[in-house]
Each structure stands twice: as structure tokens, then as C-alpha cells.
Batch of 4 targets.
Target 1
Amino acid sequence: MTKRKTSKGKGQGSGRGSNSWKKQNGPRKEFVKVEFTRHMPVLLQSVLEQLGLKKGQIFVDCNLGDGGHSEELAKLMDGDITIAGFDLDQDAIARAKANFEIAFKDLQKKPNIIFINDNFRNLTKALDEKGVSKADAILYDLGLSSYELEESGRGFSFKKDEPLIMTFSNKRDGGSEGEGEGEGDGVGETASAISEYSGADANGADSVQFTAEDIINDWDEENIRTIIESYGEDKFAWKIAKGIVKARVLERITSTSKLAEIIKQSVPGFVRFGKTHPATKTFQALRIAINDELNALNETLPQAINKLNAGGRLVVISYHSLEDRIVKNFFKKFEEEEEGKILTKRPIVPTEDETDINPRARSAKMRVFQKK
Ligand SMILES: C[S@@+](CC[C@H](N)C(=O)[O-])C[C@H]1O[C@@H](n2cnc3c(N)ncnc32)[C@H](O)[C@@H]1O
């Protein structure tokens, strides 16, 4: 995972495609010597182009994260833009606020930023409550940020020794501090088939009802296997599920490193010593299940298309085939329903230059739809 220097010096808010990252920040090693992690916005230049925004317009950033895309957009617009930024993670909202304070200090006109600590599955309701009736462009940059992976302490990485939590939101049980409950419209087929494995509550609210530790220790073997197969597409899911259930008889599994070791011991030797860590797919699967990621995506995309002004763009960056399939199918459906047209017959992917600097971008696929 590439890190970006977040102090006020070089590196702060400077990303405009990989070449200018290199020009302004020097060779790759510069990015590794950091004070703390700032998520590097993926496909930044293409995103700015594809959003097609003009000064004075309204932009919805559904995955604010560290605010990288929004920050560069606001600078490009000389601050003359309204941004409604969603993030489920309270830490992300706080980090984006802090980053913006530095980044926009010297702008004569400050962007109008509306922070929304809520799930993007509640898009319509949350925006309506903030008085945002329509938007000129909407961006999704799915998944998790470098901060969440590396520093949140919530157990997203099998390379760390952390408690098995894996929730984007820090909220537990007590309901949403955010903008309210789920809309629940239009759950798509892919995710609804396995929707009972959702970590969100029945209303689709953003409080989290269970963690990775709960799944690993309390669920039966068949359900654990189904999650790893469905969301991780791991062909050794059955072996991993068996290994987990056998290990937990001796002792409750509470840490990422313990789980990673159990997975390693459960898979065949050629996988154990292969190029990719054998826990990669299981960790992805658990994260998707706990955060109910596919259902949230299925619910939000129809809301997004309804929120767009005529000519407005919907831009989605996904990081694995399950997400990309949902986006692709929705865009096809929108076109069939004469909502507008697909602008990317094939997804836009990062250049080698970008993935060299930011390996996280490697699996990114960006699709763009324009409303009629
Ligand atoms: C890849 S990061 C976004 C990075 C951001 N574009 C940047 O340049 O800094 C994804 C963010 O989306 C948030 N997130 C994931 N699923 C979400 C959801 N359903 N609703 C709201 N936020 C979500 C995560 O907490 C994370 O901060």
C-alpha cells in the first residue's frame, strides 16, 4: 500500500495523475517515508475529467475517505463548487475536514462542503435532509481507504495483529447518528440472493450488528463457507471454513493474525506458498459481508440516477469483479430504460505509471454514465 505524505509540505493535495505525482514528489521511495497514511486518490485525472463539472455546480462524493478526489476537484473549480460528501466512517469525516482545512486555506473562495456521516444506501433521504435536491455529478470510489486498512485498528488487514472487527462505521447497535434509516428501494439480484449474510441491520441502517469475530466464532461452517465462496470467490472456501471451525474449538479466534495463520494452515501447500497471501480472499469476503457492501451498492445506484440533473454524470470506481458486475448491469439497465447513455464501453483502468506509484489502484475499474 502506497502512502502519501500528509504534512503541509510537498505531497499535500498535489496529486494530478501519476506523472505529476512523480514530478512533484520524486521517485517512488519518497512515498514510503511518511508520517502517517493519507489515501492516494485513484484515477484522479480521469475522475476530474469524467465528472465534467463546471464552476458553481453540485457534486456528491459518496466515498469521501480522506477527501482526495473532492479536494482536487474543489481546487480545480477555484473553490466555486458545492460538495456533499458521504462517509460511514466518522474517522474519515474528521480526517477529510482536517485535510480540507489545510488544502483550502489559500483559496479566495471556499467550497461549500456538506459532510454526511451516513451510508450511501440512504442517498436520497440524506441529501433531501440537507436540502440537496439535485446533483450535477456523483462519484463512488468503493471499498476502504488506506487509513482504514493500515491504521484504523479495525482488523481489515491480515498483515496486522488487530481485533477482528472490519466495520467501516464505528457505530454499534445503538442506531445511526447519521441521517436516518435505509430507503430499501431496488435491491438487485446478485446481492439479494445472499442478503441474509448482511452485517447491517434489517432496515439497512448504518449501525453494525456484528463483527468479523462474531462470524468466525459463532456462525456454522456452512454459512462461513458460503460467505467465503460468494464474496471471496475462493475455491478453497470449504477447506478454510473447516479449518476455522476446527481451530475455534480449542480457543476463540479474536485476532487477524490468528485467523490468517489458520487460513494458511487450511489451504493446500501450493496456495500457502503462492504469490498471493491465502487469506486475501477470505478477508475481502468478511469485509463485504459485515458492511453489506453489495446490497448497499444495489440500493444506492438507482437513487443516484434519480438525483442527477440532465446531462449529469455518474462515475463509479470499483475494485473487484462482484462490484464491477453490479455497476455494469445497472448501467445497461439505465440505458435500456432510456435514462441516458454509457460513456465507457470498456472501463477506464489505471496506467502502469499509476499502479507503480499506487499498487492499490491495480484492480480499479471506472465506469461512467451520463443522464439524458
Ligand atoms: C476508497 S475510500 C475513498 C477514498 C477517497 N475517494 C479519497 O480520495 O480519499 C472509500 C471510503 O468509503 C467509505 N465507505 C465504504 N462504504 C460506504 C458506504 N456504504 N457508505 C458511505 N461510505 C462508505 C469508507 O469508509 C472509505 O472511507
Note: The beta strands are 58-61, 82-86, 112-116, 135-141, 308-318, 340-342, 365-371.
Target 2
Amino acid sequence: MDNWIDIAALNDIPRLGARVVKTDTVDIAVFRTSTDGVFALKDECPHKKGPLSQGIVHDNTVTCPLHNWKIDLASGKAKAPDEGCTHSYPVKVENGRVYLGLIEQGGGDVEQLVSARA
Ligand code: FES
């Protein structure tokens, strides 16, 4: 991965919350856990496209706000008995900055940070 994009300071993402990064093609939810783990998933539940960025973060899981499916933050997979998977993206933290790994698709992938949620 050689296309790391600086999206925010770690402290701009509330613990147990998320920020949404809009790209040309997809909204990406970037989550921060209670232990400062950072994960990035497509902001769309594999069930009926609920906004995962508005879910409840606990451990390494987010609970979808619509019907309470539990989605693993690392893999994007729904936890049993539910089935499905949303796309996960590479993310890293260096020197207090959060970087999202994106495959460039025609340039100008990341437009803006649009919201934060505690
Ligand atoms: S849309 Fe997420 S649980 Fe239904």
C-alpha cells in the first residue's frame, strides 16, 4: 500500500466513535476503540445498508443502529448468527495522525471529513 492519505489527527476521532470520510465513490467510517484501535469500514451495514458510523462501538465491534447486527471492525464481517460482510480498508496511525490506505481511482479520492460522532 503506497497511497496512504492523512485523514485526521487520532484525537479528532472520539473514543468509541467514528468519523466519516467521503470519497468519490464511497463513504468510509473510521472508528476508534476505547484502547485507541483504529479501523475503517465502508459506512454501510451488510444487512440493509445502515450507517455503521452511527452505531455503538464496543471492544472491536460496532453494533448497527438499525437492527443491531454486530460487525467486526477488523474484518467487516457480521457476527453469527448473522451473515454478511462490508468492505474494510487499511488504516494506520503514525505520530498521532490517522492514515487511510486507498487505491487511487482517477485521482482526488478523498473529498472531506464530514462528521464526527462521540
Ligand atoms: S441495516 Fe444494519 S442491522 Fe439492519
Note: The chain has one domain: 4-105.
Target 3
Amino acid sequence: MCLNISIPVLLLWGFKKGQMNDCCSNSRKNTFLAGFFLSLIILTFSWSYSSAQDAAAVDASDSTATASEDAAAAGGDDGSGIPSSPEAIAEGESIFNNNCTVCHAINQQVVGPALAGVEGRWDDLGTLVAFIKNSQKVIEGGNEYAVNLYNEYNKTLMPAFSDYTDEQILNILGYIKAEASAPAQAAETADGGGEGGGQVAGGGGGIPSGYLTAIIIGLIVVLVLILLVLVLIISVLTRFLNQKQDLDDADREIINQKVDVQKVVKSRPFIGLMLFVFLAITVKLVLDGLFSVGVQQGYQPKQPIAFSHALHAGQYEIECQYCHTGVMKAKSANIPSANICMNCHQQVKTESPEIQKIYAAIDFDPDTQTYGNNKKPIEWVRIHNLPDLAYFNHAQHVNVGGLDCQNCHGEIQEMEVVYQASELTMGWCINCHRETQVNAKDNAYYDKLLELHNTENPKEPMKVEDIGGLECSKCHY
Ligand code: HEC
Ligand code: HEC
Ligand code: HEC
Ligand code: HEC
Ligand code: HEC
Ligand code: HEC
């Protein structure tokens, strides 16, 4: 680190300055002292900075390690007709994650019942499989257990999955069984993470701030102790030298001189240095300030309802489009209206005060299941907001360009409260257009362009800038 080089240099500078001014030894000692303390301060900062970085790095690698460990799920073979081979379980897991997690968890009631031990609740496996393939058929057939369950869950329809074969449904049950019998902790992680990686970055996102302060405070304490010891040594030495007889007056004067704080403060190098530091800080602050005018990166307002993307989009893996309905076909992604929430929350967590806020907004009475007519919209606080002079279209980027939401919005599925992850400046748009290849695969609209581009410029892939992504009028009205 470059800061560390400056320490010996500063010390040397303090020393040399002192030697040249031999006539007035007072200022020699002062400059040396100033250099010494400055180095100590710089040392403190560079040390704490690098150790904090190390700490963060260790933290991040730590959490990655734990997350990748629990990929395997245990399963026993007991001849119950439910498959337990790893391949079957893997297929079951994939079907389950894609179709069922919206409403089901293994060990927890969601929209539908917790599925752990479900095979034991049904009289025979055949009916259970038939129920999963088409629950309404079994209910209409009058199976007592199914009818009771249906009524218990307020006649919520479970969609039919008749496209899957019996074997595939059995694989799902194999997965459910394996998950339910796996150790509790593994089940939890697999539930939440889906692919097992969902919750990784949450822990390693930034330097834990408590850590940093603790390190700095610790260092300050150590430095103060060192200072005390040094002062002690000086006073002991002074006393010792004063007791010696064979000193002449000049030596005695040097020994007994006091550190003159006023002189240090008034000395030229010190004033120059302070001026330089002051100027450097001011210039940096002013520049940073100018560049960040109108930039809201990191903006994280408190929302009226404690809606969590980490829970809905992360743990329960609800598709973004399920709520942000416009994102594939329109300019705006849309914020969901309350009736989308009600698809689930008419049943889920009805007693929670946060959910009651949804009911209040749409004037819904959960006891009588009726709506009044005193509706008012939920006042979500807008986070991402381009100025009116700029035009941005979601469908162009997500649908045509094939970009993931995370490219621009960060790891939304891990955020308890959404914040603005990117700068949203013009430079940010332009940079990406310079770097990103146009996604021309299976898009006949681009065939001619691609051909033309490849004959004119065969080495470079076609970037967004090559199709006009840097033209002012594309982004400005
Ligand atoms: C839209 C929500 C929804 C989805 C999606 C869903 N289920 Fe269900 N499931 C329910 C509800 C609600 C019930 C309770 C019975 C009822 O109301 O029909 C249920 C009941 C069940 C039961 C019986 C539970 C018991 O305690 O006996 C099983 C097994 C089941 N679902 C499996 C699945 C599987 C496997 C999938 C994915 C392929 C799936 N479900 C997808 C809502 C859903
Ligand atoms: C269950 C519904 C739901 C799902 C699923 C969902 N969101 Fe949201 N999203 C919301 C609601 C409600 C808000 C407004 C409140 C807030 O900011 O938390 C929101 C806000 C946002 C915002 C901030 C909008 C602004 O004000 O600028 C972004 C960005 C976003 N969602 C992206 C995503 C992405 C990406 C996904 C998929 C990984 C996703 N959402 C999944 C409901 C949902
Ligand atoms: C597809 C189903 C689904 C949709 C749609 C949905 N949620 Fe949820 N929500 C859930 C599930 C499941 C839970 C977790 C319940 C639990 O912890 O037992 C939950 C939990 C919550 C909680 C936490 C409640 C608490 O006290 O723990 C809030 C708040 C919430 N949802 C708000 C919303 C809002 C606002 C919307 C609409 C933008 C919405 N949800 C849409 C399924 C859904
Ligand atoms: C290329 C970057 C980019 C991608 C990819 C992207 N967004 Fe956005 N998103 C933005 C910008 C920029 C805004 C601000 C738009 C504005 O103010 O007009 C925004 C705004 C939003 C909003 C606030 C409401 C709105 O439409 O203004 C939501 C919600 C949202 N995005 C969700 C999503 C979801 C969900 C996805 C993925 C399916 C996604 N975004 C993909 C850049 C992106
Ligand atoms: C993550 C990369 C990325 C970012 C960030 C991004 N874009 Fe794009 N943009 C693309 C891609 C890829 C395409 C090409 C989509 C296609 O195939 O048509 C595109 C296309 C466009 C187009 C259409 C260009 C044309 O000639 O058809 C406009 C307009 C546009 N972007 C505006 C913006 C604005 C405004 C912003 C900033 C708020 C922005 N983009 C940020 C990747 C990005
Ligand atoms: C890829 C999209 C894109 C292209 C191409 C683009 N801009 Fe921008 N421009 C933006 C966005 C987005 C903003 C708003 C940024 C912000 O709020 O920080 C902006 C802001 C500006 C502003 C600042 C306005 C203000 O009030 O701060 C000016 C001026 C501007 N653009 C001029 C141009 C000119 C001239 C060109 C053509 C050479 C151009 N832009 C091309 C996206 C683009």
C-alpha cells in the first residue's frame, strides 16, 4: 500500500530538517516530533484500513464456504414406492422449485400445507399422486381427506399439474421426503436458497461497521499507551541525565528544554502540511459533491409496509414478473396493486399487523371476507427515478436485450428493503452500451444488421453502441 511508503519518508524528512537547523535545536526536536506523530497517525489509518479489508474478505469467503457445503440431501431406501435415488430427488427438487414453492414449503405452512410427512397422511400413494396431478378431480371424486383439506384451506384451488408423469410426481415426493428427513439446518438452507446460493452475499456485502470501529478504538488505545510509556521514559532519562555531574551548560539546556506546542504549531513545515491536507480534503469533497449532484445511489427509503423482496423473491422464489407485470412488455415495470398481494394474503399471515395494513388500504374485512368502498392506494415510496429528460424502456432491455434485473438493480432477491444499487447516471447507461454485446440470438430483426456488422468489422462483436445506443435522441426526448 502506497501510504506505508510515506512513513519512513516522513520520518527521514523530520530528521533531516532537524539536522540542517542545528543552531536552533528546539525546532529540530519539534519538526522531528511533528513528523513522528504524523507518521503514527498515517500508520494507524493504513493499518486499520487494510485489516478491515482483510476482515471483510475473510467474512465473504466464509459465508461462501458454508453455503456450498449443503448441496447433498440424505435419503433412505425403504421400499415405500417413493424413489430415493439421487437423480430422482434432483429431478423432483427442480420440478418442486419451479412449480410449488410459491405455495408450499417443506416444514412450514405457506398458502398450502407444509409437505413434510405428507405421504403418511394419505391412505394410498396412488390417490396422493392423482391429487397432485389434478386436485379438483380427487375432491370432486369425494375423497374424504381431500375434501376436508380443501375446506380447511378456504377452498383455495391448487392448480393441476397433469403435464407431469406419475414418475415425475413420485420424484417430487422423493424430494419432499428427503428434505423432511434431512437435518433441520440443511432443510432450512435448501428451502431458502433454492439453488443453495440465494443467501450467500447477504453476509459478505460490506465491511461490518462494528468491526471497523472496534479496530480503530483498539488502535487508539494502543497508541495512547505507547505515548504514555514514551513520556515516562523521557522523564526518567531527563532525571537521570540531570543527576550526572560531567555535563556542560549547553547539554543541560538541551535536556531541560520543554516541548513548546506553540512553536510546533507555528513552525513552517507544520503549517504547510496542514494547509496541504486541508486543501486536498476540500478539493476532494467539492469534486465528489459536484459529481454526485442528482445521483441517488444507495437511496433506501422506509416503505409504508415492511414488504421484503428477500422473503418473496428470494426465499419463496416468486417471479419478478408476477408482481412487476409490465417489465417484459412495457416501458414501466409497474409496482403491483394490492389485489396481487391479496392472491396470497387473503389466506397467508392474516393476523400480521403488516398484512392488516394491506387490508386497511383496500378496506377488506378478513373476518367476513368482504370489501368496503373506502379504498386508498398504498403509498410506496419511489426509489428509482430518472429525470423527465431521459427515456428508459424495460421491455427493450429485459425482453429484447435479455438482461437480468440484477444487472441494473443489484441482488434484489436478497434485499429486505430495496435500495438503488446503480448510479443511474448517463455515464452508467453509456458505459453499458459500449461494453454489452447485442443479444441477436433467435432475433430475426437483427439478422441483416449482424451480417452487415460482421462483414465490415469481423473481429469485434456487435455492441449496443453499434446499433445506435449512443445516439442522444435514443435516450432524450
Ligand atoms: C397456488 C398455490 C399452490 C400451488 C402452486 C401448489 N399447491 Fe399444493 N396445495 C395448495 C393448497 C391450497 C392445498 C390444500 C388443499 C386445497 O386447498 O386444494 C394444497 C395441497 C397439497 C397437497 C396435500 C397436502 C396434505 O397435507 O395432504 C400436496 C401433496 C400438494 N399440495 C403438493 C403440491 C405440489 C407437489 C405442487 C407443485 C407441483 C403444489 N402442491 C403446488 C396450493 C398449491
Ligand atoms: C410479491 C410481489 C413482488 C415480487 C415477486 C417482486 N417485487 Fe419488486 N416490488 C414489489 C413492491 C410491492 C415494491 C414497492 C415497495 C418496495 O420498494 O419494497 C417493489 C419494488 C421494487 C423495486 C423498486 C421500485 C422503485 O420504487 O424504484 C425494484 C427495482 C424491484 N421491486 C425489483 C424486483 C425484482 C428484480 C424482483 C425479482 C427478483 C422483484 N422486484 C420481485 C413487489 C414485488
Ligand atoms: C405468491 C404469494 C404471495 C404474494 C403474491 C404476496 N405475498 Fe407476502 N408473503 C407470502 C408468504 C408465503 C409470506 C410468509 C408468511 C410466513 O412467514 O409465514 C409472506 C409474508 C409477507 C409479509 C410479512 C408478514 C409478517 O408479519 O411476517 C408482508 C409484510 C407481506 N408478505 C407483504 C406482501 C405485499 C405487500 C404483497 C403485495 C405486493 C405480498 N406480500 C404478496 C406470500 C405472498
Ligand atoms: C438496463 C437496466 C435495467 C434492467 C435490466 C431492469 N431495470 Fe428496472 N429500472 C431501471 C431504471 C433506469 C429505472 C428507473 C426508470 C425511470 O425512472 O423511468 C427502473 C425502474 C424500475 C422499477 C420502478 C418502476 C418503474 O418502472 O419505473 C421497477 C419496479 C423495476 N425497475 C423492476 C425491474 C425488474 C423486475 C426487472 C427485471 C425483470 C428490471 N427492473 C430490469 C433499469 C433497469
Ligand atoms: C446493463 C447494461 C445496460 C444498461 C445499464 C443500460 N442499457 Fe440500454 N441497452 C442495453 C442493451 C443490451 C440494449 C440492446 C437491446 C436490444 O437488443 O435492442 C440496450 C438498448 C437501449 C436502447 C435502444 C437502443 C437502440 O438503438 O435500439 C435505449 C434507448 C436504451 N438502451 C436506453 C438506456 C438508458 C436511458 C439507460 C440508463 C438509464 C440504459 N439504457 C442503461 C443495455 C444496457
Ligand atoms: C444511453 C442513453 C443516453 C444517451 C445515448 C445520451 N444520454 Fe444524456 N442522459 C441520459 C440519462 C439517463 C441522463 C440523466 C442522468 C442523471 O440524472 O444523472 C442524461 C442526462 C443528460 C444531460 C444532463 C441534464 C441535466 O439536467 O443534468 C445532458 C445535457 C445530456 N444528457 C445530453 C446528452 C447528449 C448531448 C447526448 C448525445 C451526445 C446524450 N445525452 C446521450 C441518457 C443518455
Note: Residues 1-30, 46-77, 185-205 have pLDDT under 50 and may be disordered.
Target 4
Amino acid sequence: MINIKEHIRMHNPDVQGVLDGCEQTLWLYMDKGKTLARSISMRAEDLLNEIKKHRNTQPLKQVQPDDTHIEFLEYLTSPGKLEEIVKLKPEMMEKEISTIRGIIGDEYFYSLDDDKRKSTEFGKRLIDEVFKYGNYRNSKTFTEIYKCLFFKKATCVYCNSTPAIIFKNKKGRDQALFELDHFYSEVCYPYLSMSFYNHIPSCSNCNARIKLAQEFTLSSHLHPFLNCFDEEYTFKTTQNILGGEALTTIHLEKTTSTQEKLAVDLELENRYLNYLTTASAPEFSEGVYVNRHLLSSRHTGQDEQKRFFKMLEPKAPREKNNILQKSYAKLNRDILKVFDVDKNYLKS
Ligand SMILES: [Zn+2]
């Protein structure tokens, strides 16, 4: 619900340094990972050679190799290309996709089956044999990277409801309790399946139950490494909570003119109507209403106000950049905004 870079900034001001370090760790894992017998470049070469060998002969694991497969794999194995793709910045993804579409059609990667996109055999082989996303997801490198990005204690980037944590399990290993959503789906864009900025730490509800293989692109959806959901949307209460009415419903209002549909496609408003109870939002709203006088600058510096602010912090952090650290922090901050009109508590 905020830009991931802002989440990092709250822990380490050298955001670019943190991100560069993680990109490099991921690339070294792909290139020389001890748990992988061969580097990604070698694996891509292996597939290229196998396809060349079977060109115009028999189908290979249901793939009938042709010049397009070869041209694409030659592009992928050209010097520096795989490293570039793994470290590809989100703003460069559309350009790369368009270049690759000039070489190979989408139908080589997926087919439409009852309106559902399904990987072709070639697409599957790219994900499983060349990019090996599944191996990475179970690797130590994965948890190391997300510890570096401060996802040891955080929440889902998309919904800010489910905790996204890394804990020490009984085997003494770090285990992540969250998923990585492929912003550009791995079914449609298997060559982006191991791109660092295409991985969005998210909960299984957002990733595996709601988003699924829906087509997300930079022009149609906010990208959590580029945009900030908090600046684009506000939870608005339907009741007059400032006048003491109980909070019973909310709606999610788009506050900018950006044409995109992240909230709609992730069903955020519908979900939050039910989250109101689990978030204890009505009680939070009532508690703020009762103490609303303490938000006034007349109480600045007074112990009573300090105590009240301290009580607010765990539910509605003063800084927006702390939103990902607390479940429902975005919702609570938006409720608080109704009362704290002079921003005596909320800092951003
Ligand atoms: Zn989520």
C-alpha cells in the first residue's frame, strides 16, 4: 500500500544501495548459485542447443522446435542479456517486452483455454529449466533478499492486511510466510519470472486467490516499486464519524486521475468492507472520536497528548512510510485523517 522503496527508506536511507545489493545477490545466485548445478546462462544454452538439434525433426517434449525458438534463445543468451533481464528496472520492462515481442509471439509462451492463460510446453520449460523460479523460492537466497528489504516483519504490499514475515522455524531455518507475486505474470512473460523488480511480496489471498494470472502492466496497474497506493487512494467513511456516528462501512476513493485498476482487480474495497471487523476499525474510530480534543495543537507538549499519540502509533503510524509495518495501518491512518485535519499527529 506504499512504494516498497519508501518502506526500505524507513529502515535505511540508502535505498538504492539496498536495492542494488539485492539485485546483485539475486544475479549471483542465478549465475553461480551453489544449489543449482549450472548457471542460468548455461541452462539457457542447453535449451538452445537441444532445440537446434531437434530443429525440423521430431517434437521435443511436445515442442516442435522452429527458428523463432532459436532466435529468442539466441537473444536471451547474447552477452549480458540475462543479467540485464534479472536486474531490469520496472520502468524498462515494457520496452524489453516489446523488443521480445518483435522476436517471438505470445502464443509461444501461453495459450488461452476457456479464457484462462495456460503455459505452453516451451513456456514451462523456460520457467522450470532455465529460470527455475521454484528453486529460488525455496532457497536461502530468497529469505536473505527479503530480510535485506525489511520484510522480516511486514505486511502484504498489496492489501496491508496479512502479515508478511520471515521466522526461524524448528529446523533453525528462516522461513518466509508470504508469496512473491509476478507483477507481469510468469505464464505470459516467463522470461521475467526471475526479474527482481517483477517480484512483489504479497499474501496468498492477493496472489493466489484473487490476482491469479490477471494481466497487470505498468500502464494499467500501480507497480509497488514505482508508485505509492497511499497517494492514489483513500479509504473514505460513509458515516459522519467526526460527529460521533459509528463506523460501519467504507469505500475506497481514487484521489488522483491516474487511469489504473489495481484496487478493482485486487477487490480491495470489497475485502475491506469485511476487514473492518478484523481490523477493529469501528472501535478505533470511536476511540479517536472520544479523544479527538487531544489532536488539537492546544494540547501540544502535554503528557495527556503524548500518551494518546503513543497509543495511536501501533495502529496508525505517524509516518506513511511505516504503513507496511502494521496490518491495516493505511485504513487506520485514513480514519484518523478525518479527525486530525490540522495534521498535529499525522506527519505525512
Ligand atoms: Zn495481500
Note: Residues 156, 158-159, 162, 202-203, 205-206 surround zinc ion (CB under 6 Å).
